[in-house]
Amino acid sequence: MDIEIDDYLPEILNFISEGIVILDSNLTIAYWNPLMEKLTRYSQKQVLDRNIGEVIPALKQNTFHQAMTRVCVSGMPAFFSAGIHRRILGDHHPVNLKMNRILHRKDKLILMEFIDMTNQFLQIDQLRASVRRQAELNNRLKQKEQVIEKLAYYDQLTGVANRALFDKYADLYLNRAVETGSMLGLMFVDVNEFKQINDTYGHNTGDKVMTRVAGMLTESMRKDDVVCRYGGDEFLVLMPDVTEPFDDQNMIRRIGKNKKKPLIQDGFEIILSLSIGVSLFPRDGRTIDQLVAKADERMYLDKHQSRTDADFGG
Questions:
Q1: Residues 53, 59: contact at Cβ < 8 Å?
Q2: On the CB side of 89, how many CA atoms lie within 13 Å of its CA?
Q3: Which CATH number fits domain 5-120: 3.30.450.20, 3.40.50.2300, 2.60.40.1120, 3.30.420.300?
């Protein structure tokens, strides 16, 4: 079936979201779509067969008139931006104007497209607002993710790593030690007589003491060492890339000055005592469980020695 496009062209142009005007070679208006009616408040009946300059006075200017003539004669397109030509349709509707020639049978017609920048500015503003909302949402999600991560991987009282995060780092550091042939150190730290501290000074003060122990360990360790609260009064410290021959004592000396000292907390002078045991991969074990068990064993030896020294006034 043959379709005569000319019969449908006006209806098609009515649905275009730009102001569309078609001029003949004499610059007389042959078509004026509904959006042009909205932009200018002139109906199509009011403007048909009138010169475009009469309806849109700004187009009488030489710049526009010459451009329309060139478009019609040579077919060279023309474009005028709303940023430079601000008042083509007056103050209320900044428009970009495009002009192109249409060859229709033997006639040369001029297609004028008035692109309403007000709507585009609104769309840009809406897009910017949407981007801002998305950015704010992303920030809130990141904050929530950080809270969730902190809940999942960090001890809520002391702020150091919990056992879940310890396990992740332990696997990472152990695999690295195996691949590189380096040594991995593990320190087991126990706060001596912590139950007595709680019973004597109260759990609130005991919690603060535990937090200060965590801070003491963190400050004493290297940047890549991982301090973990392993249990109620126990801490583990992962120490990658340690070197021989004196690492055991060097590790203990890092916190040795804090091993037994008076601590002022909530107005009380509390004697803080730590027992420490150290194990090394691969010397003391090939798995993290083996290293923890060996460090735990040496920590209890240290605790026993401390009690013996105390009994004999050492």
A1: yes
A2: 24
A3: 3.30.450.20
The sign of the CA dihedral 197, 200, 203, 204 is negative
Q: Homologous superfamily of 163-311 in CATH? A: Reverse transcriptase/Diguanylate cyclase domain (3.30.70.270)
Catalytic entry in 116, 233, 296, 302: 233
Name residue 31's beta-bridge partners.
Answer: 22
Spatial contact of 107 and 12, defined as CB atoms under 8 Å apart: no
**Could you tell me which of 65, 58, 68 has the C-alpha nearest to residue 95?**
58
**Helical packing angle, 203-220 and 247-256, nearest 10°:** 130
Unique residue bearing structure tokens 């332990």: 170
pLDDT score at 135: 80
pLDDT along the chain (314 residues), means of 10: 53 79 92 89 92 92 92 92 83 85 87 82 71 79 68 88 93 94 93 90 92 90 92 92 67 63 85 89 94 94 74 46
Looking at residue 2, what is its pLDDT?
A: 45
Confidence at residue 149, expressed as pLDDT on a 0 to 100 scale: 66
- Annotated active-site residue 302? The verdict is no
